[in-house]
Write a structure and sequence with these properties.
transferase; binds magnesium ion; binds adenosine-5'-diphosphate; Nucleotidyltransferase, domain 5; binds acetylphosphate; alpha/beta; globular; acetate kinase activity
Length: 405
């Protein structure tokens, strides 16, 4: 059967098509800058063994007004008579959607019906950058693949195992009981995927792991025995680590000051913290590759931003080693975690106390797949594991629909 995975963001769509149960990706891609006159589609094909080693890549720039136009283009690519991988949209059996916020309603993967959609909609206020885009992706996929079963995989689901003392805020009880104000945590699909890979690599199902997801959004999780015990994002995907454009941890009195004394409205504050802060606020740049370039050109703001970014990670490593009562491995993943050796070096420096010793040469090597970058005698392993949220989403869809055999 064919499982099509959609990760719909505010201005982008990532997708991947899998043949199941072979778990074989057939194609994947990224639609960027939706809503701009020069949107791009990058489409990669993995039809043969040769393409699995070196995929054929098609890239196009075109005008895409909205997500529907973007997904329609993807369907043309999938069904293209010359290069397509299917003949008809009806060959897609399941569409698996990444949905960022599932609140307390969804601790597991769920078949999407009208009630589920209403709940995802109700949660818009809690993840304003993400859930509306995820919802649009669902509605468009329902129109384009009417025969397929639509399934939601929630970023929050993996963190539903947090103990109450970790997920509650010290606020009046009614705000939790009546308004659901608590830690939810995000990037759960990625944390779960890399934690499972790490535990399998270590041959230790009860391993104490700290997983560090560094993409545009960044978060860490303390994982033991495959269960998330704590995580750095909270009620929304805004707290914790420094991110591309999000502030991460911030004393709430700053927000009170901005609103009370400087006249910020709720909307302005939300824009500031979600879209104008983080690395962008510190350096004027949000893409880590651009910040690396600025650093190499001697920009002192880039140097400070790197230090601050890595220092925040180090503080959470310390905290989570305490949560886990020890540590077997630290795992770096996602765009920055997998590629940026300087971030990893700064984040692991002066950590001998915790038994973390990075091997500088191994850290610099660019090797695909899971790799170990600690010194031989390091007590704690330091691993780089490429995340694959799309594969994890497809896996969870297949488990839910019992199509693994
Ligand atoms: N080679 C690289 N070196 C440093 N950073 C990189 C590299 N490749 C990608 N990145 C960074 O990864 C981030 C995007 O990560 P990704 O996991 O794709 O995020 P998201 O899924 O949130 O869009 C960007 O900040 C980008 O600069
Ligand atoms: C939840 C979240 O922050 O997701 P992303 O990193 O894709 O923005
Ligand atoms: Mg991501």
């Amino acid at each position: 059967m064919n499982i099509f995975v959609v990760n719909s963001g505010s201005s982008s769509i990532k997708y991947q098509l899998f043949r199941w149960p072979a778990r074989q990706p057939i194609c994947s891609g990224l639609v960027e800058r939706i809503g701009h006159p020069n949107a791009t589609i990058t489409h990669r094909l993995f039809r043969t063994e040769a393409e699995q080693a070196a995929p054929t890549e098609q890239k196009r720039t075109l005008e895409l007004l909205d997500h529907e136009a973007g997904l329609r283009e993807v369907v043309y690519l999938l069904t293209d008579p010359a290069e397509g991988v299917i003949q008809d949209p009806a060959e897609i059996d399941v569409v698996g959607h990444r949905v960022v916020h599932g609140g307390e309603s969804f601790a597991a993967t769920t078949i999407i019906d009208e009630e589920v959609k209403a709940e995802i909609r109700r949660l818009f206020a809690l993840a304003p950058l993400h859930n509306p885009a995820n919802f649009v992706g669902i509605e468009v996929a329902e129109r384009l693949f009417p025969q397929a079963r639509q399934v939601a995989v929630f970023d929050t689901a993996f963190h539903q195992t947090l103990p109450e003392y970790a997920f509650r805020y010290a606020l009046p009880d009614a705000l939790y009981q009546e308004q659901g104000i608590r830690v939810y945590g995000f990037h759960g699909t990625s944390h779960k995927y890399v934690a499972e890979q790490a535990a399998a690599y270590l041959g230790h199902s009860d391993a104490r792991l700290i997983t560090i997801h560094l993409g545009n959004g960044c978060s860490m999780a303390a994982v033991r025995g495959g269960q998330s015990l704590d995580t750095s994002m909270g009620f929304g995907p805004l707290t914790g680590l420094v991110m591309g454009t999000r502030s991460g941890d911030l004393d709430t009195s700053v927000a009170l000051h901005l609103m009370g004394q400087l006249g910020y409205t709720v909307e302005q504050l939300s824009t500031l913290l979600n879209k104008e802060s983080g690395m962008l606020g510190l350096t004027g740049l949000s893409d880590m590759r651009d910040i690396t370039r600025a650093l190499e050109q001697g920009d002192p703001r880039a140097a400070l931003a790197y230090e601050l970014y890595a220092y925040r990670i180090r503080k959470y490593i310390g905290a989570y080693a305490a949560v886990l009562n020890g540590l077997d491995a630290v795992v770096f993943t996602a765009g920055v975690g997998e590629n940026d050796a300087l971030v990893r070096r700064l984040a692991c420096q002066n950590m001998e106390f915790f038994g973390l010793q990075l091997d500088a040469a191994k850290n610099q090597q660019r090797v695909p797949g899971l790799r170990e970058i600690n010194e031989k005698n390091s007590q704690v392993k330091i691993l780089v594991i490429p995340t694959n949220e799309e594969l994890e989403i497809a896996t969870q869809c297949a488990e839910l629909l019992q199509v693994n055999s």
